[in-house]
């Protein structure tokens, strides 16, 4: 398989495939196996459509209107109308990568052979993705039950050549024009196809998979920042010993402690509890503060939460979510698999873990800036305290982000608003959980970036004083951060660009690339 092509078969796709298509523009190709599964399932639908018995989604209305039997002469209109009426989203546009994940995951389910969609409809879905055409999808419209209805409807609308979409050049134009430019004929939907294109957890799942990808990097980044803060605060690395974590065998905790130990290897700044930073006697400090000492426990709990969320995501990725669903023996059965609860719960769970990781990171930053708790560092890491304010307001920004994260940790999935005349009387709100998690992940990136920036400055100040040698990993981070454009200690200057540089340094994985040549691979 070409590394830039993802092949979609009836056996499904991987989380990496979803990220490749959504974020990196990988091409999509339907396998012969998928095309045969599509043809087989479609024959079952057409056989049912020819019979007089009503079948939900084939020859009936939808939701609370399912009591009406729809004759042959109105079925094309029925499928077209469900897309038009359900494309009722409002609010800001959703990010391109989310819409691409949404489309790709719906294609994955369609290609499973459990939806009854014709092969040519699936091929059109792949063609739209490969052309770089991105339907305009809005923030509000999904309750996370009966699928992400409005978002998926806007995608289906583009397949029909209606509504608006973004072209590969980023310009929003009528969908029909974009399809024509790329030689894609608008789809005329037949029995069940409109419903099949709308009825899945694809939006919330796509956002969960991308959050898992982001958080895997961010948890490692958080371990690095925590280690550098511990080093700059002259803390002890003895609390990171493997034998201490083995007696509380949470795998995430052990992984975070191991990462921190690797980052601190060779540092001369750690373990000075009984003496001052200049080697002189000082008041005994038997233990570091919780925010330093318990860093692996908090980050580790988040890692284990992430691992659970990834398991749920992989299970959902292996699913064929539709209603009704086509079974291998030809039966077409109604079901409730479209309910987003499994995905919604872990989206909310991750938001809690993200908020707490940010909270402990902010506490370490505050400690670095407080002359009464930083063990010899200048107030706010300022060049000339009083004349200079140093990083005082960087911590304010970090605190504002943490406060926002605490609000975002309130669960969306605990809410439910009945809809469709009480036919759909319990919903998951999984789309809402996913949307707030995306904001949370962005904010966590910024919180880690502020801690990293502060710890790097503190390490430079320590090294500049010449009393204690730092570790090579810390030096590597400082060098790379400065090469990226974030300036070191000195007189006050316009600070926002430096913090933005640090944020990009974390977001793009440059932090990991700076450290791992020294530490070896971190997990």
Automatic annotation (TrEMBL):
This is Histidine ammonia-lyase. The keyword Lyase applies. Contains an active site 4-methylidene-imidazol-5-one (MIO), which is formed autocatalytically by cyclization and dehydration of residues Cys-Ser-Gly. Its EC number is 4.3.1.3. The keyword Lyase applies. There is a cross-link at residues 145-147 (5-imidazolinone (Ala-Gly)). Gene3D superfamilies: Fumarase/aspartase (Central domain) (1.20.200.10), Fumarase/aspartase (N-terminal domain) (1.10.275.10). SUPFAM superfamilies: L-aspartase-like (SSF48557). Belongs to the PAL/histidase family. It is found in: Cytoplasm. It catalyses: L-histidine = trans-urocanate + NH4(+). It holds the Pfam family Lyase_aromatic. It comes from the Bacteria. It is an enzyme of class 4 (lyase). Keywords: Cytoplasm, Histidine metabolism, Lyase. HAMAP family: His_ammonia_lyase (MF_00229). CDD domains: PAL-HAL. The modification 2,3-didehydroalanine (Ser) is found at residue 146. Pathway: Amino-acid degradation; L-histidine degradation into L-glutamate; N-formimidoyl-L-glutamate from L-histidine: step 1/3. Coiled coil: none annotated.
């Amino acid at each position: 398989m070409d590394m830039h092509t993802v092949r979609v078969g009836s056996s499904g796709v991987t989380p990496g495939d979803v990220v490749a298509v959504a974020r990196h523009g990988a091409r999509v190709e339907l396998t012969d196996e998928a095309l045969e599964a599509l043809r087989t399932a479609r024959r079952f639908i057409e056989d049912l459509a020819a019979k007089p018995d009503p079948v939900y989604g084939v020859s009936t209305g939808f939701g609370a209107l399912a009591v009406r039997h729809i004759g042959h002469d109105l079925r094309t209109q029925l499928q077209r109308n469900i897309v038009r009426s359900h494309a009722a989203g409002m609010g800001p546009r959703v990010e391109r990568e989310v819409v691409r994940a949404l489309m790709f995951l719906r294609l994955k389910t369609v290609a499973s052979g459990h939806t009854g969609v014709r092969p040519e409809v699936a091929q059109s879905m792949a063609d739209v993705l490969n052309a770089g055409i991105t339907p305009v999808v809005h923030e509000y419209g999904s309750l996370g039950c009966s699928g992400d209805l409005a978002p998926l409807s806007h995608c289906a609308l583009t397949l029909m050549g209606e509504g608006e979409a973004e072209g590969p050049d980023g310009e929003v134009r009528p969908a029909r024009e974009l399809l024509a430019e790329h030689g894609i004929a608008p789809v005329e939907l037949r029995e069940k196809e409109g419903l099949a294109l709308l009825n899945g957890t694809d939006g919330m799942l796509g956002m969960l998979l991308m959050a898992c990808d982001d958080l895997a990097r961010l948890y490692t980044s958080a371990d690095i920042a925590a280690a550098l803060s511990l080093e700059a605060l002259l803390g002890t690395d003895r609390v990171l010993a493997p034998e201490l974590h083995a007696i509380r065998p949470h795998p995430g905790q052990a992984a975070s402690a191991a990462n921190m130990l690797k980052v601190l290897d060779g540092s001369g700044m750690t373990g000075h509890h009984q003496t001052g930073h200049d080697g002189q006697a000082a008041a005994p400090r038997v233990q570091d503060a919780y925010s330093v000492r318990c860093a692996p426990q908090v980050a580790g709990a988040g890692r284990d939460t992430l691992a659970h969320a990834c398991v749920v995501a992989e299970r959902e990725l292996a699913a064929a979510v539709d209603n009704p669903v086509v079974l291998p023996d030809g039966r077409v059965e109604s079901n409730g698999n479209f309910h987003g609860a499994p995905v919604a719960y872990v989206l909310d769970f991750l938001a809690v873990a993200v908020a707490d990781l940010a909270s402990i990171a902010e506490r370490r930053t505050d400690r670095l800036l407080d002359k009464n708790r930083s063990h010899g560092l200048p107030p706010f890491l300022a060049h000339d305290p009083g004349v200079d304010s140093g990083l005082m307001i960087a911590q304010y920004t970090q605190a504002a982000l943490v406060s926002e994260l605490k609000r975002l940790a309130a669960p969306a999935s605990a809410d439910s608003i009945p809809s469709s005349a009480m036919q759909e009387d319990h919903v998951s709100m999984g789309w809402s959980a996913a949307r707030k998690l995306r904001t949370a992940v962005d904010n966590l990136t910024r919180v880690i970036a502020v801690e990293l920036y502060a710890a790097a400055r503190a390490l430079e100040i320590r090294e500049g004083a010449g009393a204690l040698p730092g570790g090579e990993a810390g030096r590597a981070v400082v060098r790379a951060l400065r090469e990226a454009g974030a300036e070191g200690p000195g007189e006050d200057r316009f600070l926002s660009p430096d913090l933005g540089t640090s944020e990009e340094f974390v977001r793009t994985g440059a932090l990991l690339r700076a450290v791992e040549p020294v530490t070896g691979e971190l997990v």
